[in-house]
Design goal:
This protein is mostly beta strands. The chain contains no helices and 18 strands.
Length: 223
Amino acid sequence: MPSSIHFYQDQVLAGGASEPIKGCDRILFCRFGEVRVNGEVLLAGDARYVGDKLTVEGISDWSQIWRWEVDLPNSEKTLLPGMGVLSQHRMSRVITMLAMEDGTEWCFRLDQITAPKGRVSDPHKHPGPGIRCMVEGTFNVQQDVENARNILPGEPWWECGEQLVIAWGSKTMHAKFLRGLVLPADKFGAPETIQNAKGQPNKKRGHFRLLVDQLITAKGDGT
């Protein structure tokens, strides 16, 4: 049964609170502000895996959360309802590269890449797909499935993993972005897995920072 990656952006005011939404495999990143996630504080720059039902409460005047979820392609969108909360669905893509059969184990990862200014990557690919989102600078992505130009902070894009990608940013400023990825389970805890066109480790890489690595189990539709 195929799975999908879904990407959301949630804004929460101080004193705002969401009603609970269903549990699923999800990773949250606090981009701005300060919130409570299921009662635990998440500061700007913090990331956390949450598999249970989710509630979010705003602590600072204004907070923003980026949220990646792995669920079935036909699952209902999980917008956060509540007072002082604005929730937006930004992107969903079906995972076609990986055979995520019911009961199989996978690595759900959020990491951060910082590419130096002026760098143009060699053609490369990844062992799994994911939705990226820009943090600083700008970025351009050339691939067969979905090209993206002049990506700005807060804008997501998709890389399917199995096709070669060439990417470049600005000549005057580094490019920093987050990647919500699904990878084979044997990549759990492994450093950056980027490969060149020959399947070898790519020498022209940005700075890699692992934020969350979580083993998850693929779920079928129960039929």
